[in-house]
């Protein structure tokens, strides 16, 4: 898949655990895991905005496009 989700990278940079981010976002750790592993079919802008706010980053820090 050419879209790479870098939530793990941003979590490490911010020294935050997945469980903590899931609580801030109001989603289950399982749903966050689906997003982090790239198995999600899509992401709502509302969720992306909440991730960026919680991790103090830009959408480009979380999502990356790599051509195949």
TrEMBL record:
It comes from the Bacteria. InterPro entries: Cro/C1-type_HTH (IPR001387), Lambda_DNA-bd_dom_sf (IPR010982). PROSITE patterns: HTH_CROC1 (PS50943). GO terms for molecular function: DNA binding. Residues 13-62 form the HTH cro/C1-type domain. Signal peptide: none annotated. This is Transcriptional regulator. It comes from Flavobacterium terrae.
